[in-house]
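Protein modeling request. Please complete all fields; requests missing the sequence field cannot be processed.
Requester role: graduate student
Desired output: 3D structure, token encoding
Chains: 1
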Amino acid sequence: MQYKYCGKSGVQLPLLSLGLWHNFGDVDDFDNARRMILHAFEKGICHYDLANNYGPSPGSAERNFGRVLKSDLKAHRDELFISSKAGHDMWDGVYGTGSSRKNIIASCDQSLQRCGVEYFDIFYSHRYDGVTPVEETMEALIQLVRQGKALYVGISKYPQDKQQQAYDILREAHVPCLLSQYRCSMFDQKARRQNFQCAADNGSGIICFSPLAQGLLTGKYNNGIPEGSRAAKSSGFLQQSQVTPERVEAARQLAVIAEERGQSMAQMALAWVLNDQRVTSVIIGTSSVGQMDNNLATLEHLDFTAEELERIDQIISDPVLSF
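Delivered output (323 residues):
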């Protein structure tokens, strides 16, 4: 595994981190989830990315991770970098969502209990909710650090103006933003254009999620929508309407370049996100140990030629591909 420092800090993360957004909930096979968590650790993926609402059901990914931590990794706690977040819908009622101090603090306390840890290595504000003043949310994160419930804090998906405001407040309190988490892929370059430089200028590391565009950049949908895939489900983050002919055709063209590079489409897509030197780590979501190993093989070929990057840019620059 290769590691990289988070912005202007002394903390290193693996280039690939394991996300527990999907496939680790109580609707999933626990034994398979346990195998993936342990395999990740064996391969040097020491960073596990969680959130209070990951599952389904909400909270179950944290509970399952806590079970594995207790039974298999407890002696290795100081070798792990564990993150969680709060801000999206978690429980019923007016206090179960949003970025208020009340929700952030209560959510962190609950997440600590579910994971069975005394502190998180980093705790994020999962989103700017459009209502809560940034000052209030950042003060809650600062409080978590002061109380020893988090070593570091981060922000996720903040628009650029609120992003800078958050950095300023945290810096003034001497609790700088360690990581900024944004969605980024060949089909979603919005954060790359609007948020990455702001993070870099403020000394924050950048960690990216959904680098494979929910599977569109794996070739899975090149011949239709497979039964049981994310797009085949009535609910979820990838809808059938998003599997457009333009995106499928672009994925086919990108696959040709990947084959010439001796990589799978997914490996090239991951390498492309990591090619941005501002990026600290990319979060992978896997459904099996085999899929994880395929993703890990990305690290064997991270470099691109100028010609390859130009060909890729010609394919992905079409605005109709963007989410």
